[in-house]
Amino acid sequence: MERLGFVLLTIGFLAAAFVTSLSPTEVDWRLFAPAIAVGGIGVVMVKQARRAAARDSTVIRHHLEVLDRSLAVIVENLDRFRDESIKLPVHELRFEIDRRFRDDLRAFADARESMVYVFGMRAYGQVMSAFAAGERYLNRIWSASADEYEAEARAYIGRAHTQFLEARAAFDHASAQTFGAEDRTP
């Protein structure tokens, strides 16, 4: 269904673009409106397919494992990064951030929507608020490193660590509330 939705979206977009290119001054709404409608139907189909996939228990189980593992790795890497960054020149910090964190940050972001279905919006908001703040702080470290603002770069390492610890605690709390203390996945 998602593939068909993308096909309809593409056909609708291309048809609407073609109709608007027929005249430099006017749009033939009798042709343009149906083309936009076909594209709109495609968008709805894609969204429904993705929503259904996101609620699939196998997908949710996998996403929760990814979320748990990613947060654990990020916190572990931040522990080491905080200690090892003292020995690194400031301009090297950004390369270490890319090497140590980007894959896990991306994996977490790609799987985050499953938290809404499992934990609810409130717990999702608590986890994502701390996670997003930690990610912003890592980005500030990266930017300060690129600009060689050493004091700022080093100051935000601890702040990022604190935010990711909060995200980890909120995720663990939501897991315990949902599944009990022993089992953290559905």
List the main descriptive attributes of the protein structure presented here.
186 residues, mainly alpha, Four Helix Bundle (Hemerythrin (Met), subunit A), 2 domains, 7 helices, flat
Quick one: biggest sheet? none
CATH architecture of the largest domain: Up-down Bundle
Helix content: over 70%
Spatial extent as radius of gyration: 22 Å
Number of helices in the DSSP assignment? 7
- Based on Cα principal axes, name the global outline: flat
Mean pLDDT level: 92
Number of separate strands = 0
In CATH terms, what is the fold-level topology of the largest domain? Four Helix Bundle (Hemerythrin (Met), subunit A)
CATH superfamily heading of the largest domain? IL-4 antagonist (De novo design) like domain
Pick out the low-confidence regions: none
Total tally of structural domains: 2
Determine the structural class based on helices, strands and strand pairing: mainly alpha
Strand content: under 5%
Separation, N- and C-terminal Cα atoms: 27 Å
CATH class category name of the largest domain:
Mainly Alpha
Order of helices and strands: HHHHHHH
Task: Please give a structural write-up.
The chain has 186 residues and is mainly α. The chain folds into two domains: 2-53; 56-179, Up-down Bundle (Four Helix Bundle (Hemerythrin (Met), subunit A)). 84% of the residues lie in helices and 0% in strands. The chain contains seven helices and no strands. Helix 3 runs antiparallel to helix 4 (93-111), helix 3 packs antiparallel against helix 7 (150-179) and helix 4 (93-111) runs antiparallel to helix 6. The chain is flat and about 65 Å long. The mean pLDDT is 92.
